[in-house]
Amino acid sequence: MGNSWFSRWHFEKRETTSNLVLVMVPVLSVVIGLIFTGLFIALTGKDPLEVYLLMFDGAFGSAYGISETIVKSIPLLICALGLSIAFRMQLWNIGAEGQLYMGAFGATWAALTFPDWPAYQLLPVMMVAGFLAGGLWGLLPAIPRAYFKVNETITTLLMNYIAILWVDYLVVGPWKDPKSFNFPISPQFTEGAILPTLGTSRIHMGLVFGVVVALLLYIVLNYTRWGFEIRVSGESPAAARYAGMNYVKNILLVMFISGGLAGLAGMTEVSAITQRLQHGISPGYGYSAIIIAWLARLHPAAIVLVSVIFGGMLVGGYSIQTSGFSSTTVSMLQGAILFFVVGGEIFVNYRLVRGEKGGK
Amino acid sequence: MVEMINITKRFPGILANDRVSFSVKAGEIHALLGENGAGKSTLMSILTGLYRPDEGEIRIQGTPVDLQSPRDAVAHGIGMVHQHFKLVKPFTVAENIILGLKGIKEVYNLKSIDESVAQLSREYGLHIQPDSPIWQLSVGEQQRAEIVKILFRGAEILILDEPTAVLTPQEAKDLYKTLRKMADLGKAIIVISHKLSEVLAHTDAITVLRGGRSVGTVRTKETSEMELTRMMVGRPVMLETVKNPVNRSSKVLELHNLSALGNRGQFALKEINLDIYGGEIVGIAGVAGNGQRELAEVVAGLRAIERGQKKVDGNDLTLASPKQMIQAGVSYVPEDRLGTGLVPNLNAMENYLLKGVQRMPSGFINWKQVAQETAEVIKKYDIKVPNPKNPVKMLSGGNLQKLLLGREISGKPRLIVTMYPMRGLDVGAMETIRSLLLQERDRGAAVLLISEELEELFALSDRLAVLHGGEVMGVVDPHKTTFEDVGLMMAGKRMAAHG
């Protein structure tokens, strides 16, 4: 190794991190992700720039595109907000997808059990049922995490599969619509179980939930005792314990709320979009939300913005299908972005310098 | 064999080694003695190629060397046995030995390696079976496996970091027997330790480090526990401290036959009996690692009490949580200022709020009020905070400590527990901390001062308790006792209480 050109580069810890760096790292990560995915698109013989323009046009180029983008961004937003609380406490909840499915299950249970109720009664009950079901699904892995330090990354991830298969079981089994010609779907919801929409578009009340939650989260994190405890616990568990904060209780509470919000996202999806429980209600919202929360550096306002961008990527992905592309190009793009965001994280705390190590 | 000349190593904000010189001859067991944070580990990390010195020179057998990496150090015959062994548990001794070794063929003959390992262990009397898996071995045997590993790599200079910390007394004795044998065969042995008695019994020479500097090297035969203690804790520059006469009020803290476990599950505190009254400072002297940290944590409610009783102002708080202890008026300035006492990435205001947040009545934070209170504390104690919005990790050690202590006394506590409150501070900050502690005492608070600087303890304490092996060796009046007596108690001699 000796004195070769490469070995002269090394990382040095930054004493401070400027706001410019904090913004540029995620922005550059997205750009590099776009270039990286573009290379693969180019390999298939298409012009990546053209494909990206097509995606952008599909997502934001028409009133329909914009409304669809917002529709897709609603579950992303609510899930990402939930995840951001857990991530703040350094709890790596990878289970938003499963918690969303459990929320959809809880809401569907309410919708099918009280079909005759009017909307003003049934919708709140569905919301509570969805939040509770998702929250309990988040709480379950939190218990071994809090008391026995069982790694929550793995447990929350594995519980996704259980939740998804549980919903699949319900729609092919006990909750299958007898009139469905054997499609794996539950009976359609009654009128009282459907969230109101904006005019004739598919944009629904869930948007209001998302924005209200973002606002609440901002207030809670910055202006309440509990929000302060979450921030301290995330920064330094030792300091949290020292300051008399109940670390174990906060783990349980945070995971419950984190899961509950994903559950609320599940409720909005079955209530407003599918209007019944069915197989595959989420194209991976819970996973995309991880990337969103991370890109937004867990800041509620930034999460709103990034969610809309990611909603646009999904819609754009569907629109390029017509020109012979698989919409999974978007999954690849998302993966590439996450990869570079996580990789770029080192530049937040370190900078690359050339020269003698520990030099004088 | 090895010479380290005028080694200086700086870390951001800390001078870890300041022109330290240190040399070891072949055939000698040389101890590196000093308190935690004295710079022993940094010095040895430089010798093993982990860090590079900012200034100074290393010579091995007279030739200057530039150790760029641990691999370089190994190539120069330097090997280290770390306190936490670096062994792969499911692998056998021989497999661990060849792990990461250069010059092993893709297809190797484990049997021939087994043989050479067995021969090495016979030669040095290490008694180790090459084919036994690590997880089956006792701690002492694992340590011997580590030693064989570095010998196999051709080490001529062996460094052992706190080698007896994990051993039983019998194992420790055997270890030193082995080390002596290796020294007789021409190896140079360096032992990092802070155990006086052990170092005196088994080494040839002792170098004492304190505060990043070398205090001196002495021949073991020509020194005594007393001299070493003095070298370790330091004596000169008695700062004149003006102290009002003690004005004791009621009993604040009562510890009754209290025992608690350490992190490794052993009893770190044994049957402690200690009372502290309002208006007095009780100092705790002792070599680090004799139960001080556990004592502080027990009082702060951060460590569970196994047996015995703890009372504050007459209320039984044996089972109290950290929150309940804070509510009972117990403040704590921990050893780990940045990370436990303060949160590095939060700003001064947020750190000031750390404990006060529990008192916010509505659950909402009034940032305006917090900003105002923080500004008052910053002004009152002359804390240099360039920008109150910046994370506190950018503050200097003295300013951090003033912020931390300022916060801890802002609630007018009944009891203040401070651990090494002046460690690493400059003279000015030290003076401030001293006078703040005395002010609190005069206000009527009880102060528990844990320190390793005897002169500091003598200057500030009204009574002085000495910890050794988790037991109180005695409580003395610092005005009626000498450094020497306290030094003996720190080494494990019991004294009749006359305080």
TrEMBL record, chain A:
Keyword check for Nucleotide-binding: no
Gene Ontology molecular function: any one: transmembrane transporter activity
**Keywords of this entry:** Cell membrane, Membrane, Transmembrane, Transmembrane helix
Report which superkingdom the organism of origin falls in. Bacteria
What is the membrane topology noted in the UniProt record heading this document?
Multi-pass membrane protein
- For this UniProt entry, what is the primary localization, expressed as one broad class? membrane
Say yes or no: keyword Transferase present. no
Transmembrane parts of this sequence: 20-43, 63-87, 99-117, 123-142, 154-172, 203-221, 251-273, 279-296, 303-320, 332-353
Q: What is its subcellular localisation?
A: Cell membrane
InterPro entries associated with the record: ABC_transp_permease
One GO cellular component term of this record is: plasma membrane
Signal peptide range = none
Its protein name is ABC transporter permease
Q: Which species is the source of this protein?
A: Heliobacterium mobile
